[in-house]
């Protein structure tokens, strides 16, 4: 049986900024904090965290039973390392999806019924990323899913449930978060190009190749800085987001230097930290008078 520490590693806590950042900036995009329904913001955060942990366990299970993780370079996987049984990891994934579904249902009942459909699509997207007979993550569509679910849906969804409205500020913030959240997956797949190619997992990085994937990562980590400049239209305080630039450079440095394999792992954590820092700074800038 896996130890508690191994289960925590399997949940991949370094990906939590992908869940927290959209909610933070989604609340900030409301601008008038007096208009925010805070208990809904907490539920939105629980939904996001439950889904990101659920998708991590689901990927662990699906990749593990396919043998994709048998020669893994990155952080440990529970199934691939034989630390936990596939059934146990699958149950953990669906437990997380269930928690997210219950919290999401509460939001839908008190906000808008069609959010139930959105939630169902999110859970299906989380499972079929690497699950099912034809996982879309194996044909290079994972980045589109991350940008959509952890960028557009998460940010604008948060803005909508906590305030009852969505505007251009929420959309622009969603693009910024979606871009750097996608960058986390891109560098992860850049690291795994050799093993993914061998196992038949045709990610976008495999399709683009090493050089073009590094260029894509650079564009994605720079996108939030462009968003900060665009948000000046709403308030000059949005430029606070530019203070996250050093963290983005730290994330880009290993990619720029041509690092491969385990040497790219620091970029994963640094990109997550940069995303969360940018989200917090941008949210603060948006709500300042």
TrEMBL record:
InterPro entries referenced in this protein's UniProt entry, alphabetically: MenA, UbiA_prenyltransferase, UbiA_sf, UBIAD1
Gene Ontology BP annotations: menaquinone biosynthetic process; vitamin K biosynthetic process
Transmembrane is among the record's keywords: yes
GO cellular component, one term: plasma membrane
Molecular-function GO term, any one: 1,4-dihydroxy-2-naphthoate polyprenyltransferase activity
Major subcellular site: membrane
Record keyword Transferase present: yes
Stated family: Belongs to the MenA family. Type 1 subfamily.
Protein name: 1,4-dihydroxy-2-naphthoate octaprenyltransferase
Species per Swiss-Prot/TrEMBL record: Gordonia jinghuaiqii
Protein encoded by which gene: menA
